Amino acid sequence: MLIKKKNEFRRGYNQITSEDEKDNNTMMDFGIIILEKNDVYTNDEKKERAFLLMSGDVTFEFDDASYSVRRNSLLDELPYTLHVSKNTKVKLTATSKCEICYVATKNGNDFKSVFYKPEDTRSEQRGKGTMKETSTRIVRTIFDKANAPYANLVLGEVVNYPGKWSSYPPHHHPQPEIYHYRIYPKHGFGISILGDDAYKVFDGDTIKILNDKVHPQVSAPGYAMYYIWAIRHLENNPYITPVFVKEHMWVMEENAFIWPEEEK
């Protein structure tokens, strides 16, 4: 399901999805927080929450800790992310205009707050050396079951190079997922495939991935496509790895023949 960005995000919290939606429910609150210089935003929702800095200068305060950080680029810089449990109060103070992604869900576990710095994020170039580099992309995993076994969320980022594919070979998983997009330059576009349907996505759009649908992505030539990905674990069925569509797995083989042949 495609959620179009209809207007510019306003100051404060801009809700995109709600955990309690009756239809097409991702089981996650998801939105964008916009703060102007000197704005203060507080949050004490009784849920597991993550705050991912997208741009600007902000001070994160929680428990007895304080971190003042800055992010200039989604494409070239790894993220700062605060991950807290239901009993933690969070205060954000902007020292410039900033943008923060917010994702939350119900979780009865109490766990120690974690402030993930860029060096804590696993970043890898997937697809490199295969498929004639048509699916080379950067995949960043901030937290998942490996480093946050107490969480009900998984959170990361993808940088999709211009004209190339990501989430490829096509894969699927029963756990609901959200993709939130930014396009560079801003007037560009990409294509998001959900099952047998394809959606043209623009800067600020969001996709709900539900019902175990395959979801490969591609960016238009000339336009880099960044997206945040958030997954909600299911009870007794956490997200670990996706299921790849077998008929397309051959493209990953070392000696796969992909037309045209290399010049001798």
Description of the molecule:
This protein has one domain: Sandwich (Jelly Rolls), CATH 2.60.120. It is built from no helices and 22 strands. The protein has strands at 2-3, 12-17, 29-35, 40-43, 48-62, 65-71, 81-84, 90-94, 98-105, 114-116, 122-126, 137-143, 153-160, 165-166, 171-172, 177-184, 190-194, 197-201, 206-209, 217-219, 224-232, 243-244. A hairpin with a 2-residue loop joins strand 17 (190-194) and strand 18 (197-201). The chain starts with a strand and ends in a 20-residue tail after the last strand. The mean pLDDT is 97.
Q: Name the CATH superfamily classification.
A: Jelly Rolls
- Distance N terminus to C terminus? 46 Å
Q: Residue ranges: pLDDT <50 for 5 or more in a row?
A: none
Treating each run of at least 4 consecutive H or I residues as one helix, how many helices? 0
Question: Biggest sheet, open or closed, and with what strands and sense?
Answer: 9 strands, antiparallel
